[in-house]
Amino acid sequence: MTTHIPTYSICNLIDEFNNMQDCVVLDLQEFISEKPDLVTSPHRHSFYQILFILEGTGEHFIDFKTHTIQKGDLYFLVPGQIHKWIFDVTACGIVINFNHNFFSSFLARRNYLEDFPFFIGNGEYSKVSLQNKFVDTQQIFNKIQTEYKACNECSWDLLRLYLLELFIISNRVINTEHFIKIENKHQFLLLRNFEKLVEENYKQKKLPKDYAEMLFVTPNHLNALCQKIKGISAGELIRNRILLEIKRLLVNSSLTISEIAYELNYQDNSYFSRFFKKNTGFSPEEFRASKYV
Q1: Can you give the pLDDT at residue 5?
Q2: What is the pLDDT of residue 2?
Q3: Is residue 113 situated within a structural domain?
Q4: In this structure, are 91 and 109 located in the same domain?
């Protein structure tokens, strides 16, 4: 049985001489010219990927959403996300691929990356617009490229530090743009923790009351916070994550509909199919057969 969409590792994206590296830094134009079919075809990765747009326009399809590409855009992809690129001929930028191992031996807190919203698997924060910080961001990428090419003593540690600087700057931009309605730090942390808990537990826990209990708040309080900041209910946030995973499994795997339902802890296949169709307008079979990316 084969999958519908290929999964690429760092090893099969670069040449055989670099395939033991946990991080690679690539020029976008060179990457496109070497692997044009891979760029424009839907695929997923077993690693993290960062794309910074220096010039040009186009479209970036991530997890069934279309993003218009502009100068200064920064894209984050986590393992398992589906994406493809369509660039115009003038597009240029920098691509960085790295494994979880690249930071695991460097950071004392093993799950440090997962604290950043763009490394949560729901894809909501995959795009960060850094037009207002373009010069500063470009300087960080220039330093990353310099250290990657130099490969001197401690170059890898400097590269890690520059990436962490990039993550922190991007995180601040997201906090400003997406959490402007938050009145205090407690609300900010509560929403972030809710999103993280959903990512960790959506297969088993599907009701707001389950998460409210873990967060030591009432379901009404959690729902009011989501409505205020996200514009959707807590229940809808949970459903959106479940639906995203169903879509990924439908197009990524050879699992049957019943197996997907079981994977997501639905005991009733009929209810599972009704749930999906009610929220997408497609039956699982119809979605699997459709043009999904």
Answers
A1: 73
A2: 41
A3: yes
A4: yes
Between CA 140 and CA 104 the distance in angstroms is 22
In this predicted structure, the answer to whether residue 92 has a pLDDT above a threshold of 80 is yes
239-254 mean pLDDT:
90
Handedness of CA 128, 133, 134, 136 (dihedral sign): negative
DSSP of 98-131, one letter per residue?
A: E-THHHHTT-SSTTGGGGSGGGSTT-TTSEEE-G
CATH number for the domain spanning 83: value is 2.60.120.280
Cβ neighbours of 239 (radius 10 Å): 17
Give the Cβ contact number of residue 245 at 10 Å.
Answer: 19
CA separation for the pair 36, 27 (Å, rounded): 13
- Check residue 11 and give its pLDDT: 62
Dihedral angle, C-alpha 158, 80, 16, 52, nearest 10 °: -50
Do 21 and 164 lie in a common domain? yes
How far lies 263's CA from each of 202, 245, 250, 271, in Å? 11, 10, 12, 14
Count of domains forming the chain: 2
Q: What is the largest CA-CA distance in the chain?
A: 59
In tens, the pLDDT along 11-61 reads 666 654 554 578 999 999 888 887 777 777 888 888 999 999 999 999 999
Residue entry with tokens 């079919």 = 37
Cα separations (Å) of 136 from 26, 132, 155? Answer: 19, 9, 20
Provide the phi-psi class of 286: left if phi over 0, else alpha when psi is between -120 and 50, else beta. Answer: alpha
Place 4 in a pLDDT band, splitting at 50, 70 and 90. low
pLDDT at 178: 64
